[in-house]
UniProtKB/TrEMBL annotation:
PANTHER family: BASIC AMINO ACID ANTIPORTER YFCC-RELATED (PTHR43652:SF2). One of its GO terms (biological process) is potassium ion transport. SUPFAM superfamilies: TrkA C-terminal domain-like. It holds the Pfam family CitMHS. This is SLC13 family permease.
Length: 603
């Protein structure tokens, strides 16, 4: 037990601080448990059993099904209809955002639902003259409680179902009635928390959610770029004449970025690096005025005080260029890199004009700032480059981008396949794993997805995370670590009724989930909850369900759930915004979930 607790402590620290990605931490846990087999009692076969777990395979299949729906453009069409309905009414915008993402999240992975809907919601805010901050946090929260509607709403539900089935099969006497969840087994509770959550977000939550990003007229105004976009001309005696743009930018010690090059009335954008600088060239520069003065003195440039960059042209775009906001996605290969080390300009044929991290704008030496999940980049690029960014899994383009390759003719097929998967699993004709895998195969056979897209659809880090943490639950069971933690929590039953102990499990799991991965908290807490229920002679299913719902709804920190990180940069949020808006909702859910479980299933 001491060894297992040491592994758990190390895992919690690594999950919370993320010196390496959480999936790598999970693989490290798996390896450590197998290497320390004499103490952890996890054999090599048990150590890799997570890869063969029905939960892991089901989550993999659900990623494919979700991506199939995404590739048809069905959600984008829905977004356009919603925009026509809501217009500039903030109540309608908020209600539509909560209602749509909450409903969709019950049937496709809720993380995917937020990634798909975020551009729609951002555009909805901009077109309706509403701060995006007022809609994006509710988008994240609604996706979480929407995910509690069905078994397939989140990977957490699927993992919890698998763990419950294993515990019930291994020890039916200690855990009578503990079984795998059916498709709609907890839907009535999910509906209750969804209604309560929606009511909170529409009333108290709306008042608490800040408008961090002011209603903007254009992107240059939103990012505060008016005084940072300036034009200067190259003088005849400038040392820059004859050099390439790339060499000139590499050698300068100033924080400056070349947005456009104007020569003889013709405007050039990326790629600018190979172009040779000539006398009379006009540079459109992203810099601050202090740096610009030094640059002019040092490099032989002359400021054009009466000429400014055409910001309207930048904003609206033309055949050559457009401005878009691009968010660094979770699991992006650019996390930990800088714009310079990633060679962003040449790699993506795009220029980053500004970088926003939460509410803060990073302008000084922006190219050398390490990128983080949720960072928002203001990017100027050609339509082709923006299209490539839009399909790149490293980014989420936070505005609706037209994609001519949507397979709209396949919309009925995609929705029908997902509906059939749900129906077959709900009627118990096939296990959810078999049903989901069959649906994924049919997606390919019917042309909804192309074979190579199947591999692109899967978020492999989540698969490795699941496979890596599942053996930790085995170690807790086999060494008695789960029993010991359960014993400590059961002590509270000496002065609290069973329903209060149930609520305690919800709160402990919620606190843990707001710090570490939701899947990791489920693996840690479900064995403990089942053991505690057995010692209290209580309903083990009720305790497992409390843990599942708590792990699926983490509102209080940006790192508590992936969807919170998705909206962190685009919403311009501070850490305290999650605490202020999410804490009352978390406590409300603790009461509602506990009372709902007690009323429906009994404690």
């Amino acid at each position: 037990m001491v060894v297992v607790f040491a592994v758990i402590l190390a895992a919690l620290v690594l999950f919370a601080t993320e010196p390496v990605p959480i999936d790598i931490t999970a693989i490290g846990i798996m390896v450590a448990l197998m290497v320390l087999e004499p103490w952890t009692r996890v054999s090599p076969a048990e150590g890799v059993s997570g890869f063969a777990s029905s939960a892991t395979v089901t989550v993999l299949a659900m990623f494919i099904l979700s991506y199939g729906v995404q590739r048809t453009g069905a959600v984008q069409i829905l977004g356009r209809k919603i925009a026509a309905f809501t217009k500039d009414d903030e109540n309608r915008q908020l209600g539509a955002t909560i209602g749509v993402v909450g409903s969709i999240s019950g049937f496709i992975n809720n993380t995917a639902a937020v990634a798909i809907l975020m551009p729609m919601v951002t555009d909805l805010a901009h077109e309706g003259k509403t701060s995006p901050s007022k809609l994006l946090l509710p988008l994240s929260y609604a996706s979480m409680f929407g995910g509690t509607l069905t078994l397939i709403g989140t990977s957490t539900n699927i993992l919890a179902s698998d763990l419950a089935a294993q515990l019930g099969a291994q020890n039916p006497e200690a855990f009578p009635g503990l079984h795998a969840f059916s498709m709609f087994e907890f839907t009535k509770l999910g509906v209750i928390v969804s209604v309560v959550g929606a009511a909170y977000l529409m009333t108290v939550g709306r008042w608490l959610t800040p408008a961090r990003i002011p209603v903007r007229e254009d992107l240059t105004e939103e990012f505060g770029l008016e005084e940072y976009l300036t034009e200067a001309t190259v003088t005849a005696d400038s040392p820059l004449v004859g050099r390439t743009v790339a060499d000139a930018l590499d050698d300068t010690e100033f924080d400056v970025d070349l947005v456009q090059l104007i020569r003889e009335g013709q405007t050039f954008v990326e790629p600018l690096g190979p172009k040779e600088i000539q006398a009379g060239d006009i540079f459109a520069l992203r810099t601050d005025r202090e740096t610009l003065v030094g640059l002019i003195d040092a490099e032989g440039l002359r400021l054009l005080p009466d000429v400014s960059v055409d910001e309207d042209e930048l904003e609206s775009g033309n055949a050559d260029q457009s401005l878009v906001e691009v968010v660094i996605a979770p699991r992006s290969s650019l996390v930990g890199e800088t714009l310079a080390s990633a060679n962003f300009r040449d790699r993506y044929d795009a220029t980053v004009l500004a970088l926003r991290r939460g509410p803060e704008y990073i302008r000084k030496r922006m190219d050398h700032a390490e990128l983080q999940v949720g960072d928002t980049l203001l990017v100027q690029a050609t339509p082709d480059s923006i299209s490539r960014l839009n399909v790149n899994r490293d980014f989420i383009v936070a505005q609706e981008i037209e994609r001519p390759d949507y397979r709209e003719s396949k919309i009925p097929l995609a929705i029908g396949i997902v509906g059939a998967v749900v129906a077959v699993a709900a009627l118990d004709v096939l296990p959810i794993m078999v049903s989901a895998l069959t649906g994924a195969l049919v997606m390919v056979l019917t042309g909804v997805l192309k074979p190579p897209e199947v591999y692109d659809a899967v978020e492999w880090d989540v698969i490795f995370l699941l496979a890596g943490v599942i053996p930790l639950g085995i170690a807790m069971q086999q060494t008695g670590a789960a029993d010991l933690i359960a014993d400590l929590l059961v002590l509270s039953a000496d002065f609290m009724p069973p329903i209060a102990v149930l609520g305690l499990f919800y709160i402990v799991t919620a606190m843990l989930t707001n710090i570490v991965s939701n899947n990791a908290s489920v693996v840690l807490m479900i064995p403990v909850a089942a053991e505690a229920a057995a010692q209290l002679d209580a309903n083990a299913f009720a305790f497992v369900l409390a843990v599942t719902f708590a792990a699926s709804t983490a509102f209080m920190t940006p790192v508590g759930y992936q969807t919170n990180l998705f909206v962190y940069g685009p919403g311009g949020y501070k850490f305290t915004d999650y605490v202020r808006v999410g804490t009352p909702l978390q406590m409300l859910f603790a009461v509602v979930t506990t009372a709902g479980i007690a009323a429906i299933w009994g404690v």
